Amino acid sequence: MSAEERRESVILAAVAEFARGGYNATSTEAIARRVGVSQPYLFRLFPSKQAMFLAASDRCLADTRKVFAEAGDGLEGEEALQAMAAAYQRLIVDDPDKLLLQMQMYAAIAAAEAAGDHEFGESVRAGWLQMWDEIHLALGADIGETTTFLAYGMLINTLASLGFPPDHRVWAGFYPSARPTV
């Protein structure tokens, strides 16, 4: 494998490991083991654990943006909203690490902010803002639609993370494309 291919392997492993263990509880040893490399080699590809976490976070957000972009491509208004909601629901069902890593990102950055580290979350905020902007445009640059769509998305993240089953009453108020399937 080339260094770039190995780097890609590390990012994918970091997504999986950080999704399950969070920033603080995930060891670089676990990431190295998942990839099948030594820890010293891992640090030749990434300068720090934080760099690995941020690369995994950036990948998670980029993949999510791609799902929204592909789902909404060529659609407008309600059609775009429904397609993007359904695509996101499939993403977090088919690849639960994406959901878990999102939740871990929010927790890790909030903890860093509380500890006075305001730089840790800069790239994640930038990636999230890019996602907001792209969703905003896909929904016709309507601030209310964008806010509502993302608010429902965060509620979906919360309910899915808490393990509410698809037939639970808490899902009843969602538009059908955003509800999990039984």
Spans of at least 5 consecutive residues whose pLDDT stays below 50 are none
What structural class is derived from the secondary structure elements?
Answer: mainly alpha
Mean pLDDT: 93
Q: What's the total number of strands? A: 0
Termini separation = 41 Å
The helical percent reads over 70%
Q: Please state roughly what percent of the residues sit in beta strands, choosing from under 5%, 5-15%, 15-25%, 25-35%, 35-45% or over 45%.
A: under 5%
Radius of gyration of CA atoms, rounded to a whole number: 17 Å
The sequence of SSEs as H and E is HHHHHHHH
What is the count of DSSP helices, taking H or I runs of 4+ residues? Answer: 8
Kindly describe this structure.
With 182 residues, the chain is mainly α. Helices cover 74% and strands 0% of the residues. It has eight helices and no strands. It has helices at residues 3-25, 28-35, 39-45, 49-72, 77-94, 96-114, 122-138, 143-161. Helix 6 (96-114) packs across helix 8. The longest helix is centred in the N-terminal third of the chain and has 24 residues, at 49-72. The chain is globular and about 50 Å long. It starts with a helix and ends in a 21-residue tail after the last helix. 27% of the residues are buried. The model has no long low-confidence stretch (mean pLDDT 93).
